[in-house]
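Hi team, as promised in this morning's meeting, here are the two structures we talked about. I've kept the exact order from the run log so nobody has to guess. The first one is mostly here for context; it's the second one we should focus on when we meet again. Sequence first, then the predicted C-alpha cells.
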Amino acid sequence: MATMASPVLLKPLAHSAFIAAAVMAALCALAGEPLLAACAATVGGIVVCSPTFRKRHGAAPWPGLRAGFFIILVLLVATAALTDRWFISYWVYGLPLLAYLVVPQRGAWIAILAVVAIALFMVYQASGIAQRHQIIGAFFLTLLLSLMLIFLLEFKRRQLMPLRRTDELTNAASQQHLTADLNKEIQRSEREGTTLSVIMLALKPSNDAEPAGADSRSILPQIGRYLHSHIRDFDAYYRVADLQFLIILPGITSPQASRQAEALRQGVQQLLTSHQLAMTLSTGAAGLNIGDDANSLQRSVTGALRRAQQHTGNDSQTFNGRNQEPKA
C-alpha cells in the first residue's frame, strides 16, 4: 500500500512546489530582485525535471537537466554570497538535501562540500561576532538535519530493496530475486520431469571503448515492454545488468530456446535500428542439464552469450552441455 500511495501524494506536492516557485520568481522579478527570481525559477526547473512531477522524467535527458539546474542554483547562491546579498544566502540551508535528491550520490557529496565552502566564506565575510554565530549555528544545524534525513532515506531504501520485485525502468523482475526464482523453477522442473531453458540478452555499444550513454538507456523501457509482450505469461525476465536481461522459460527445450533467442534478438535489433542506435545485440541460450543449479545454469548461458559477442557481436549462441562448448 505504501508504494502505491507515495506517487499519489508526491505528484500534487511537486505541482504545488512548481506553482509556488513560479509565483515567487514572478514576484521577485517585479520587486527588482533578479538574483532571487533566478533562484526561484531554477528551483522550479528542478521540480519540473523530476520524475515526481511526471513519471517519464526519470529517463534521459531529464536527470541531466536536473543536475544542470542544481549546478546553476549553487552558482547563483555563491554569487549571492560574493555580492553580499545576505537574504539570498539562506538558500544555502536547503542545498545539501536538494543535492541528494537531484544529483548522483558522488556528485551530491561534492556539492555538499561546495555548499560548506560557500557557508564558510559567508562566515568569513560576516561583520560582527553575532552575525557569524547566527550563520554558523543556523547552517550547521540545518546541515546536520539534512544529513540525518539523507541517512534515514538511504536506510529506508536499502531496507525496502529486497522487497522490490521489479526494476522501475524496464518493469523486469529485479536481480535480487533471480537466483531464488531460478532455483524454484529448477526444482519444479526436476520434480515434474519437464524441461527448462534460459536466455540472456545483452546490448553493447558498437565501439567497445565507448561507454553506454543516456541514449542507450533511454531505449530500455521499450525493450522491457517488447520482452514482456513477446514471452508467455508464466515466463519471467530479469534485468541482470545495466544493458543485460535474463529470461526464464519453463517447459522449453534448448533448441526451442535457441530459436526464441534469435527471434527476440531480431525483434529488439529492429527496435534499435528504428531509434538509430549503433549497438550490437547478442543472445545466449542454455537448457537445464542434470546436476545444474541456478549458478551453474547462469554460468552456462553467460558462456553462450560471451561466445556470441566474440563471434560477430550480433549473434545467438546456444550452450551444449554434452561437450561444454557453446554452439551456434
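And here is the second protein, the one for discussion:
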Amino acid sequence: MNLATREAFGKTLVELIKNEDVVVLDADLAHATKTMMFAKECPERFFNAGIAEADMIGTAAGLALSGKIPFASTFAVFATGRAFDQIRNSVCYPNANVKIVGTHAGISVGEDGGTHQTIEDIALMRSLPNMTVIHPCDDVEARQAVLAAAEYDGPVYLRMSRVPTPTLHSDEYKFEIGKGETIREGKDIAIVATGLMVAKAKEAAEKLAQEGIDAKVINISTIKPLDANLLLSTAKEVKGFVTVEEHNVHGGLGSAVSELLSQNEPKKIKMVGVQDKFGKSGNPDKLFEMYGLTVANIVEAAKSL
C-alpha cells in the first residue's frame, strides 16, 4: 500500500481525540496538512490561526504551558522558517510541550516550486536545544511517531511528506523515539536513510546484492536524538557509510551521522541528498532525477566506497 505520511498524521490525530488534552492548530492549510480530519470530528479543540505561523506557534506554546498537548501544523517551509524565532524562544527555550508538524517537506512537493520545497528544516530544528526531530518513512511509522510524540513531554518536530510512499512496516512494528531500525543486514557498507528515501535505500541494497556488495540498510527516523549505539556498532562492521535524505546535505542526516562518527569511529561517508541547491517546480520523480536522489545515485555512491 502507498500512503502519504501526512495522511497518516491526519488519521492519527482523530485517534488522539480520546486524549482530552490534545488540541490542534493550523495555519489555514487544514485540507493539505490533513488536520481537517480532526477539525471535523472535534471542532471545539481545533484552532485555525490563519496565515500567521508565528502567532500559531506562540498560541501553541501558551496552550502547552496551560497543560494542553498542542499539535501545530502547516507546510514544513513555513513551520520552521517563518516561525523559527517563536519556536526558539517560546517553545524550545522554556521546553514547552509543543508538537510541530511540518508537512509537504522536501523537493517531492513538486509543482509548488522552490519557495515551498524546504531543504533546510531538519538543520534548523536539530540546531535547537530541547528539540526532538522525527522523520518517519511510511504511514505505519508516521502513525506511531505521532502517538509517541503525544506521550513525550517536550518539543517535537515531525517531518511529513506530501506524496504517497510505500508501506515498509507491518502493524507489528514498534517505533521508539531515539531508536534507529535495521531494515536489512549487511557487512560491506551501511546505507543510512530517512523519510521517503528509506524505500529507495532498500531497493538500492537489493541491486547492490546482485553485484556482490552486501549493504546494511538503516532507517533513522529519529534524527535527534540520534541512535548512537546502532550507528557506532555498525561502524565497527562496515567499510563506509552512505547517507540518504531528501534534504540539503548541509545540516541534515548526513551531517548528524558525520558528527557522530568523526568523534567516535571515523569512517568514509558519501552523502546522497540535495547538494546545497534550492528546489524547482516540476514533477517529483523528475526532480529526484535532477537532484540526484534516485536508486541509481545511491548504488553509485555505495560502489564508490
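Starting points for discussion:
The chain has two domains: 2-166, 181-304.
The first strand starts at residue 2 and ends at 3.
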